[in-house]
Amino acid sequence: xxxxxxxxxxxxxxxxxxxxxxxxxxxxxxxxxxxxxxxxxxxxxxxxxxxxxxxxxxxxxxxxxxxxxxxxxxxxxxxxxxxxxxxxxxxxxxxxxxxxxxxxxxxxxxxxxxxxxxxxxxxxxxxxxxxxxxxxxxxxxxxxxxxxxxxxxxxxxxxxxxxxxxxxxxxxxxxxxxxxxxxxxxxxxxxxxxxxxxxxxxxxxxxxxxxxxxxxxxxxxxxxxxxxxxxxxxxxxxxxxxxxxxxxxxxxxxxxxxxxxxxxxxxxxxxxxxxxxxxxxxxxxxxxxxxxxxxxxxxxxxxxxxxxxxxxxxxxxxxx
Length: 320
Description:
The chain has helices spanning about 45-70, 75-90, 95-105, 120-130, 140-150, 185-195, 215-220, 235-240, 260-270, 295-300; strands at about 1-10, 15-20, 110-115, 135, 155-160, 165, 170-175, 205-210, 225-230, 250-255, 275-280, 310-315. By secondary structure, it is α/β, with parallel strands linked by helices.
């Protein structure tokens, strides 16, 4: 296989054309048994031969990508790859529409929103589309690179490449094969493996990541109207880094770590009077008919089924 021509055409739209000449050893494989005549009649390929052709096509595409990535056109290839990724990311979805309808009750166009545990930016995208200035907090390098690509053109998006905790410093992060459940809490990993929630998941890698606090981010970016916190069992430490009221915030809960969630509720009530709601799973709908006090939400959370999860919503009461 060799590249016979690499062409970059600009004609209304920019395109990268890679023409690859593939040299196969057709006669060398028994799968290529002839079903046509020597005079050139069209061969009637068997299913195995068709699969062989498909595999060859896949290998040709993969080899073509490798050739381009190792050539002087690597930068051009990366530009197109990033552009394609960003276009896929910003496609509208039914979940996005539902999320925007739900989150707009917490903030208005131009408000500041913190997305703590941003991962690949699904919630950041919802907040951004509602007109918020988004401060996304994410310590995982692959997620950071993705966020840098898909939000690269936004002036209302700020990426904080760290975790949050009770104090500024560093901490060990347990990296999972699923980026959404990487965590700074070894105890949370133990609990969700024992419960069977993530029995087959692995946390085989470790990384030392920088840690900041919510108070530090408020000093830097301003007081947020809303803070989304999704940090897989490290919520208590994140809340410990907050000493002042914000507009509202959300905390993910799991029954395995319900004591940690109850501690967060008490920490927040110690800052200022609060009222509470919750949503089950990814419904993006309140489960209670109205906001309730701390004792009421504690009673609800203590009774959630073991296989449940969701988010607790906290609204700081404004002084009259």
